[in-house]
Structures are given as structure tokens and as C-alpha cells.
Fold this sequence. Notes:
This protein is α+β, with helices and mostly antiparallel strands. Helices cover 23% and strands 29% of the residues. Strands 1-2-3 form a three-stranded antiparallel β-sheet. A hairpin with a 2-residue loop joins strand 4 and strand 5. The chain is globular and about 35 Å long. The protein starts with a helix and ends in an 18-residue tail after the last strand.
Amino acid sequence: MKNIDKNLLDETLARNTLDDIPTPKNDAKEIVGLTKSSGRITGYQLSDGSTVSKEEGVAMAKDGEIRGVGIAHRKDTEYLKSLPDDSENNNLGNLPSVSG
């Protein structure tokens, strides 16, 4: 399998794990850091310096106010996942932890 085909397949599979991929508004913010408690993500730091809870982040993403993420769920809890692209640096799991 060609390398480009594998990348496309990986991206397609990753996107299929998302429940929704909202269309971001022109002025949408990006997630630049994570707030955590006992190793679990509890919120997000945004590119404007503000910090929001995980629930607020999901609602903002649904409203197109956060770019580069999709919505997924585990049991009854919705959360944000990075949209697949060619960069590992902007994956949520690779972002720094910040104090909320």
C-alpha cells in the first residue's frame, strides 16, 4: 500500500470515530493547553488565554467557536478529539497541561 493511501485510510478511520465535526466560525479559537485533575482532562485553555471546562468546550465546539476538533463520546460523556492532520504537535494529547 502506498504511503499516501495509508495516511488517507488512517485519517478516514480517525474521523469515523467522531460523532460530529462542527464547522468552525472565522473567529474560532484553538485549544492550546489542557487542564487536568488526577491525570484526566477537565478543561481546555484556549488561544485567547481563557480556560473552559470540558463541557463548555464541547458546547463551544458545537457552536463553531473552537477549531480543529470533533466531538466524540464515551458512555454518556461527550469530549473533544483533535481532527486528524499531518501534524502530531496539535493533537490534544500532546498539548501541555496548564493550571485552571
